[in-house]
Amino acid sequence: MMHFWNVVVLLCCLATHSGGQKNTDFYTTVSTLSDLVHVEKQVKAELLGYVERLKVLRDNILNFVQDRQPYDDLTSPSAVSEYLKHPVHAFHLIKRMTAGLGAIEAHINKTREFDPLVNIEEWRKQRLLPWDEDFTGLAMSLVTLQDTYALDLHELAKGHLHTKIPRNRTIHGRLPLSARDCLNISQAALQWGLYDRAMDWAERAIAKAADEEPPTIPKQELETHHEAIVNKTNGEPVRDPTMRSADSKAQLFQELPADQEEQNYKRLCRGELLRTPKMDSKLRCRYYKGKDAFFTLHPIKLEEINLKPYIIVMRDVVQERDIEDLMAFAEPRLQRSTTYTGDGNAPSTRRTSSNAWRVG
What we know:
The protein has helices at 2-12, 33-66, 77-84, 87-113, 116-125, 132-149, 153-157, 179-191, 195-211, 219-233, 246-253, 260-269, 277-280, 320-330; strands at residues 15-16, 26-27, 161-163, 169-171, 285-288, 300-306, 311-315, 335-336, 338-340, 345-347, 354-355. It is mostly helical. Among the domains are: 35-125; 278-355, no CATH class. The longest helix has 34 residues, at 33-66.
């Protein structure tokens, strides 16, 4: 059971290995989430500082605009001309439109110097902030998570991770998904050709939007996306998704049979037992002293996992302090996991994991 939760948390949490590296990527693995939180605090500080400067500028502009002059009450051109014949009046008008307006201009230019976009764009260029592709990859990872662990869609939209396979288990979340969030996930699934998942998330977006006030997404945008999914399947016209018959749902969103290896992988991730009790009854645990009894003083604990092929796990070989040192060494070297595409290895577009390899 702990294996299930460890993997779920591994997939759910957003992380980055930053520190000013050029090729930083954002994943759905537990790594250095605090880096992004720290940058987010800096962004908020920049924006709040900018807002305060805008408030001061606003007050100065309002003071200038609302400072009524004697000629504001004059209604005829002749009256204004008569007023301006007075040299002191002319002095005040020229002063107002030079020194007075000049102060406003200087304040505006000073405010521009503190444009927060300069720092934000630089942080994004340095990959201290995520890119759009990171957001799309994260949305796709949620679909992968849902599919692998057979997560309940309604609970997932509420921010909870709930599965009944192989037993009822739930990780409660504190933030639900909005209709806009559900649409983003549906769009990612559609992009990957997962039309059944795309439709499920589109329907959840429609249901969410009906209860939102104010709505996070226009109804027209939802209907357009829903129609795009239907057109990608069999071209049936858009209709109320709640009125679909069971036959229609099966026809449009029937789950394709996957190969046994993938199914076994998902079952293992969910914590299901694939081995029979008879197979496990032949497995043993023992102490291993090594060739020539090299480990006599501190024998290694061996646990048999499988006989053919022979697979074992060696327990307590690496100490906790050594593991911590390895993790500290690997963390700044983490890179996006690669996938085999047939033409070679390519970075995964799904933010599911990152890794680092030490050779030699």
